Amino acid sequence: MRIGVPTEIKSSEFRVGLVPASVREITAHGHEVVVQSGAGAGIFADDAAYQKAGARILPTAEAVFAEADLIVKVKEPQAIEYKRLQPHQILFTYLHLAPDADQARGLLASGATAIAYETVTDAQGGLPLLAPMSEVAGRLSIEAAAMALRRSSGGRGVLMGGVPSVKPAKVVVLGGGVVGTHAARMAAGLGADVTIIDRSLPRLRQLDELFEGRVRTLASTLESIETEVFAADAVIGAVLVPGASAPKLVTRDMLKEMKKGAVLVDVAIDQGGCFETSYPTTHAEPTYEIDGIIHYCVANMPGAVPVTSAQALNNATLPFVLKLAAKGLAALDDDKHLAAGLNVRAGRIVHPTVAASLGFDRLEVRPFALAAERRPITNPPCAPLPLRGATRRAGPLHNRSGPAFLFCIVRRPESGARQQVRPVVHDLSAASSFSPPSPSASPGSSGSRISHGASIGSVITAIPMERLANVSAFMA
Ligand SMILES: NC(=O)c1ccc[n+]([C@@H]2O[C@H](COP(=O)([O-])OP(=O)(O)OC[C@H]3O[C@@H](n4cnc5c(N)ncnc54)[C@H](O)[C@@H]3O)[C@@H](O)[C@H]2O)c1
Fold this sequence. Notes:
Bound molecules: nicotinamide-adenine-dinucleotide
CATH topology of the largest domain: Rossmann fold
CATH class of the largest domain: Alpha Beta
Oligomer: single chain
Strand order of the largest sheet: 3-2-1-4-5-6-14-15
Strand content: 15-25%
Largest sheet: 8 strands, mixed
């Protein structure tokens, strides 16, 4: 298989999907690796280091996206990246789709398969590809809080560890998972007064044993959160409900009761944030102030220490990259933990929690906004074709590698009854506008090039013209 590594383009992101040592491992297993020139610059790995490891260097991201079968990245694809994805490709990266409907629509429209690092599981019920970055972010969160607490940064002017005769800072950690544990470890190491709040009693028991009394633990209730947050100098937001947007544990009203100059570090910002007043910031401008409370909400915290974090990430991802390289999507059949990472497949959100969080119907494909961007279509982008007991909808889609297509979505009727329908695929390559056929029009008329039987509930998406003969293969 050919594995591609583009340069990360998110603001202040210096990590890279594969470090040279991983490339060496992958090429030793007989696969090909193409790397965008300069992709490793952020970790001081130059093109020569990648070539020595067996990679072929390509000049641009376009070239990497055009050639690769499996694309290994770090951060979620940006708009320019998901528009480059093709239906046959597998994207393996962090996605954090739940709070990001635009990205979800972009991935659906691409037709590509997207496997999210953050929902891959392990036998212990953990998230092994989130863990290394959570370790880094947890430790960094205390460095960030300590910086923001300085008066010169607008903070309370409190030293984390205090000094003999002066109290240390009070640090409250919401969520005692990987981020929370590493944050607590750093804060306790600096001598701060640390409390961890979690909703899991077994987890609180483990933490109590781990820290041997150096850290307090509390069950997560409205009462405990309010009391602790109001007394805190720094609050670390580290909660996670896998695949879902983070719960808002600190509301805007609560800020008024907090100490002026206190700091909120929302590590969970990549899942939408667990403070109501959080919005994502960058390393260039990491903080802002609301009601006298300093907020730090950098969504890619580990990007600040790319040498440590790229290596830590690769240590965890490499075994999965090797499996995907060896077997392609069949690797998902053999490994249920890797399969748990599957978020998007052939125009559908297939991860139930992610789909529910986005409010997407798993059978629904919504590429219309993107299609409209690529090629203005004058008819309404989504034209219902009434059919007894079922909903057929049709919309235009323009594929950059070929002509535009109409694709049909045939949705399951409420009754669940199966019924034969005949979706019609139109070649729109020469058309600047398109009028859907009337329900009575026979398949093959109105300029249609092909018609094919399908059962209700099947989905046909983005069918390249040259593969129309095999249209049945595209039915989900
Ligand atoms: N900003 C960044 O750069 C960055 C980097 C790494 C991880 N993260 C994010 O940090 C968050 C935490 O990650 P993690 O690896 O520690 O997850 P984790 O699953 O190890 O821990 C989450 C903890 O939150 C607890 N929790 C859930 N709901 C709660 C509630 N209502 N009250 C109290 N506790 C609650 C869970 O019981 C669990 O112990 C995630 O959103 C993750 O995506 C962000």
